Amino acid sequence: MKHGTKAFVTAVALTASLVAVHSYAGAEGSLKTAVNPPHLSDTVQFGYSHATVAPADAQIIHVAGQVGMTPDGPNDFANQVDRSFANLIAALQAAGGKTEDIVKITMLIVDHDGEKLAVVGEKRRETFGNAPPASTLIPVTRLYAPGVLFEIDAVAVKR
Length: 159
Fold this sequence. Notes:
The protein is α+β, with helices and mostly antiparallel strands. The chain has one domain (about 5-159): CATH 3.30.1330.40. Helices cover about 35% and strands about 25% of the residues. It has helices at about 5-20, 75-95, 115-130, and strands spanning about 25, 35, 50-55, 60-65, 100-110, 135-140, 150-159. Helix 2 packs parallel to helix 3 (about 115-130). The radius of gyration is 18 Å and the shape is globular.
């Protein structure tokens, strides 16, 4: 083995062992393990983890983007977030999954700002508790239809 390759393999093994030591399991019965290395910021307080790991024998559920705008309203940002999460969970349950099975979410927010981030952070904490999934937030100028302010999709694992 060349010196450079050996150093790389050693660094990868060391990094993997450090992360494994600082990971924690999700809710009882959950297949996911949330990973939050101590040298990265504490993201659990914002309702997400840096990474999640699922076993190789898990089934994967992909939940399409869900929105919360309704003809009857109210369609302010907070209400759309609440309904979007409810729709996401309903689709997940229809596929045989549970909230604690979610390993990754992606959220799209129209005209993102600190106030909207606070609403989303609170909803993530309320929904996922102390074993949150990995999360990506993408600010956008517009979603598929006028008035739609928020969209969320998810990846979950189950046996």
